[in-house]
Amino acid sequence: MEITEAQFHRIEHCLPQQRGNVSMTNLQVLSAILYVAEHGCKWRGLPKRFGNWHTIYTRMNRWSKSGVLDRVFQELQREQIVRIKIEAVSLDSTIVKVHPDGTGALKKTVLGPSENPGEAGPPRFIWLPRMLEQP
Fold first, then answer.
1. Quick one: average pLDDT of 76-103?
2. Going by C-beta distance under 8 Å and a sequence separation of 6 or more, which residues neighbour residue 35?
3. Rounded Cα gap, residues 99 and 25, in angstroms
4. Are 75 and 14 in contact (CB under 8 A)?
5. How many H helices and E strands in the chain?
6. What gap in Å lies between CA 105 and CA 29, rounded to an integer?
7. Cα dihedral 37, 43, 46, 48 sign
8. Residue-range domain boundaries for the chain
9. Which of 45, 46, 69, 95 has its Cα between 20 and 30 A from that of 108?
10. Average pLDDT estimate for 18-30
């Protein structure tokens, strides 16, 4: 899903102007972002030909927060260069940390029996009527 330089020039106006001494062009960063979107790999799993993964991730994060990525993907689809639409984000449950109080574990408090059974709330069991003899 890499784009050529001619295709890049058609969407270049959506990207911010590069200033200063940059190690990667916007084309290289965009190609790496498209690679991750296509293959679903981790940032650290990017091939070495794309350059430093952390530089790419940092720039992608800035573009995402400022709305640049949304404009780029819209322009890529409008120009019919790349047909991609990201609709859902999945979250692996192993990265969501829950406080111990939120796990539903019983509290370490001593519950004493109530002196008046009426205060204890609804009964915890139900008596079901049974027929002893069949008619």
1. 68
2. 1, 2, 41, 46, 47, 50
3. 43
4. yes
5. 4, 0
6. 47
7. positive
8. 5-78
9. 95
10. 87
How is residue 22 written in tokens?
């940059």
Identity of the amino acid at 117: P
Strand runs (DSSP E) across the chain, as ranges? none
pLDDT at 18: 85
How far from 32 is each of 2, 50, 59, 77, 101, CA to CA, in Å? 8, 6, 11, 18, 41
Does the pLDDT at position 53 exceed 90? yes
Unique residue bearing structure tokens 């091939």: 47
Q: Are 2 and 49 contacting, i.e. CB atoms less than 8 angstroms apart?
A: no
Query: How far apart are alpha carbons 129 and 77 in whole angstroms?
Result: 69
Could you tell me if 1 and 84 are in contact, meaning their C-beta atoms sit under 8 angstroms apart?
yes
pLDDT at 125: 53
Kindly state the tokens that stand for 128.
Answer: 């079901």
d(CA 68, CA 18): 13
